[in-house]
Design goal:
Chain lengths: ~775, ~55
């Protein structure tokens, strides 16, 4: 099981021939030790600090620790928290912190600074707490140092805190510890009673009292999580598994107590405490798996958390979280930055609105036009006058729409709950029938009848049933996690298994959602020269050019001409007009001119993901209908649909039309799986039977999704469906098995033949079988 | 049977010590970062600085 911390190298990142000495990525031909300049710098930094032993121990996936080509300057000074003794503290979420060696590297690299007092990273929460003596501005330098090592950092946000702060989880672990202690010590006494057939009655009575002394407090304390949940189930008027557990445990404990007082032959404290321990173990496992998924999502969101540059009256800027911006304030939007707020610009702007409308080509907005939050600035930096604060803006309106759609989805009932709806009343009816049978029909004393009735409750206590589904969930969620799929909702697997129709978004889902250089007849040295200029810019097209030639060195004396391009000596890279060519129609073109040589044009396009046709084929093989639903124009959508092998497509669908299409499918009795990444997909994602979003999706889409595919591409989606279906089949087997067990054991209990020994054997063996069966769920 | 009078309290006391130890570990947040603690122990280089929680 994944939760038992098994150390397994994901990929050997050790320094071997052909692998980058820092990040472990495969080297391109001609590269000596490092895959890029960033890695070379990082390696020099690590060895310079005397921390080179990191490389012998690192077990990260190859390429994780590659510093980004152009380090984004993250101003962290506003997030440093001053402490009363004049020092500062900063909490960061660190992405790429995947092994113990990384934790060590991060802590030691910061501790090497003379003014840093302490640095402590948590591997499970990916949280780093650093304190230093001195001023707040040091925060930015410390963050930059981590970025140079290849770790991506972001301020620790309230969302991360919600995901990790786990008071309820801690209470469950405590209850489990107490229940385990109690059951083992009661067993110590019980085994003596079971085997001690020659035991005197007084000794047995004494041992029963001892068992009661340990058992009663344990049942009362360790069972609290169940009692509380059962109480709310009673108030909601809906029987739940927890109600059955609570009744069974409490009735058994009380019956055993009265048997102890009146010196009866058997007490069942061992059964009650062992039952609690087993159930709590299942619950702790279930929670741990889901907590990890939640945390990873929170980490993804923190990395794209809204930080904006507020323009101060004196012309300087300061970095602040987006929530602190009020309507009317002015922000500086850098090239390539995503707009976080609705606003208007005083100048003409070129925006890529793919995330809000699904258009794949950037569009020019005239001065004064309303600019939608979520669009990406493809042109020069501009000043945005904010028209609505974050909580009143269009993104917040979309989030409210999501909430409503989510509530509608909340009606889905998990298979375990469906089983318990009729199981619990039946079990209680049988118990009541047993009492009536013994007391009314057979005429025995009411104490005997009660003991037998409670035995029925104990035997039917859904120990195996309560473990049946969570155990499968833990194993399946762990298996998906290792394949890079995060499961964020408790019933997501069940819904994924039953999906019968896949609706795919185009931009960013089937395609990469970012410009890629179309290979043309450009000469290699020209490309290299242009890429070395491009290294100086954060513009998306420049970045795309750099990706096509990643090892180009930074050109000297690069000067940025706002809104036009870059200049270095006689070389120019920028818009076609900047290089003396007619402007391009779609804005997806860069021109390069070196002195008097004729200009060279680089064209870019959004490319189909490599694994998209394979993923579509995989979905079809699983029996799902596949369709493409995009807000883009007809031609682009039809081309992508043909390339990816999608038979059915719809173009020009806005956010509302997408949600309507999903609703229509549901009304027709289909169970749609929606896959999308944009803000315009969020409502459809929330309305669908089950939803997934690819890596790099907008934060709104990721929160609306049940599954987040962490690796690039859609390849893991068919595998995830296969695992979900297998997990569902095993969960059903488990439920069926525990029901069969009950059918065999309940008649014994009704007949009054169940001794504490038999109860213990039945309970332990059925739970073991269910858990062992669940372990198969991880295989594809 | 007299041995029971001694052995049962002794065993219970030892078990209780274990429980108290567990609760103390839980309270002092030693269960917060199980993955980190598992690998941290493998680094035997002396830390440059105390890194308290």
């Amino acid at each position: 099981m994944s939760l038992i911390g098994r150390v397994r190298p994901v990929a050997t990142a050790a320094v071997s021939a052909g692998a980058c000495a820092h990040c472990g990525a495969r080297l391109a031909p001609g590269q000596d030790r490092f895959c890029c300049a960033g890695c070379e710098g990082a390696h020099a930094l690590v060895t310079g600090l005397g921390l080179a032993s990191f490389y012998a121990r690192q077990i990260t996936e190859a390429g994780t620790l590659r510093p980004e080509g152009v380090a984004a300057d993250l101003d962290l000074a506003t997030f440093a928290e001053p402490l009363p003794d004049g020092t500062h503290r900063l909490d960061l979420v660190v992405s790429g912190l995947t092994c113990g060696a990384c934790v060590w590297l991060v802590e030691q690299a910061l501790a090497a600074e003379p003014d840093v007092l302490s640095a402590r990273a948590s591997l499970s929460a990916r949280r780093l707490t650093v304190t230093w003596r001195g001023e707040a501005a040091r925060a930015t330098e410390l963050g930059t140092r981590l970025a140079r090592l290849g770790f991506r950092v972001a301020p620790w946000s309230p969302a991360c805190l919600r995901a990790t702060e786990d008071a309820e989880g801690r209470e469950l672990v405590r209850a489990l510890g107490i229940a385990a202690f109690g059951s083992m010590n009661v067993m110590l006494v019980s085994v003596a009673v079971w085997v001690g057939t020659d035991m005197g009655e007084a000794t047995r009575h004494g041992l029963h009292w001892l068992a009661a002394l340990i058992g009663m407090p344990v049942v009362l304390i360790a069972g609290m999580p169940f009692y509380r949940s059962a109480w709310s189930a009673i108030r909601a008027g809906r029987p739940s598994m927890d109600l059955a557990v609570s009744l069974g445990v409490l009735a058994t404990a009380l019956m055993s107590l009265s048997e102890t007082v009146f010196n009866g032959p058997y007490t069942y404290f061992d059964g009650a405490t062992a039952l609690l321990a087993l159930l709590l173990a299942g619950r702790v496992l279930d929670r741990a798996a889901r907590r990890r998924a939640r945390q990873s999502v929170a980490e993804l969101l923190a990395l794209q958390e809204g930080l904006v540059a507020r323009l101060l009256p004196d012309g300087r800027t300061e970095t602040v979280p987006v929530e602190r911006i009020a309507a009317g304030e002015r922000l500086l939007v850098a090239a390539g930055e995503r707009l976080r707020l609705d606003g208007v610009a005083e100048t003409q702007t070129l925006l890529d609105a793919a995330a809000t409308t699904g258009e794949s080509l950037p569009r020019t907005f005239p001065p004064g036009a309303a600019l939608p939050a979520g669009a990406v600035n493809m042109g020069a930096p501009f000043v945005l006058s904010v028209t609505a604060a974050a909580r009143d803006g269009s993104l917040a309106a979309m989030a409210r729409l999501l909430e409503r759609a989510e509530q509608a989805k909340g009606r889905f009932v998990a298979i375990a709950d469906r089983a318990s709806r009729w199981y619990v009343p039946v079990a209680h009816a049988v118990a009541a029938g047993t009492f009536v049978l013994w007391w009314g029909v057979l005429g025995s004393a009411w104490q005997v009848a009660l003991v037998n009735a409670v035995c029925v409750l104990l035997i039917t206590c859904p120990c195996a049933l309560a473990l049946a589904v969570p155990a499968v969930q833990v194993v399946a969620v762990g298996a998906l996690f290792r394949r890079g799929v995060l499961v964020t909702s408790a019933t997501a697997l069940e819904r994924l298994a039953s999906a019968d129709h896949a609706v795919l978004d185009k931009t960013g889902t089937l395609t990469e959602g970012r410009p890629v250089l179309i290979p043309d007849a450009q000469a290699e040295p020209v490309l290299r020269r242009a890429a070395s200029l491009a290294r100086a810019s954060r513009h998306p097209l420049a970045q795309a050019l750099l990706r096509a030639c990643p090892d180009a060195p930074l050109a000297e004396n690069v000067r940025e001409v706002p809104g036009q391009g870059l200049e270095s000596g006689t070389a120019r890279l920028g818009s076609p007009a900047f290089c003396g060519l007619p402007p391009s129609a779609d804005g997806m073109t860069l021109a390069f001119r070196d002195g008097a040589a004729p200009p060279v044009v680089f064209r870019f396009a959004d490319r189909l993901r490599e694994d998209a046709p394979g993923a579509v084929q995989g979905l079809k093989e699983l029996g799902l209908g596949v369709e493409l639903l995009s807000g883009d124009g007809e031609g682009a959508v039809a081309a992508v649909a043909w390339q990816a092998g999608v038979p059915e497509w719809r173009s020009g669908a806005g956010p509302a039309a997408k949600a309507e299409r999903i609703a229509a499918l549901r009304a027709a009795g289909r169970r749609p799986l929606m896959v999308g990444d944009g803000i315009n997909d969020a409502a459809a994602l929330a309305a669908a039977h089950v939803s997934a979003s690819p890596a790099g999706a907008t934060d709104l889409a990721q929160t609306a999704s049940d599954l987040v595919l962490q690796r690039e591409g859609l390849g893991s989606l068919p595998a995830a469906i296969r695992i979900a279906r297998r997990a569902q089949a095993i969960a059903r087997q488990n439920i069926g098995f525990s029901l069969v067990y009950n059918v065999l054991a309940v008649p014994m209990a009704v007949a009054g033949l169940v001794t504490p020994l038999i109860a213990a054997v039945v309970m332990a063996s059925s739970s073991l079988v269910v858990v062992l069966n669940a372990l198969r769920a991880g295989k594809e | 049977m007299d041995s029971l009078l001694l052995l049962i309290p002794v065993s219970l006391f030892l078990g209780f010590l274990g429980l108290v130890g567990f609760l103390w570990a839980l309270r002092s947040r030693q269960y917060e970062d199980l993955d980190g603690a598992a690998s941290r122990i493998l680094f035997d280089d002396k830390p440059r600085k105390e890194t308290p929680q």
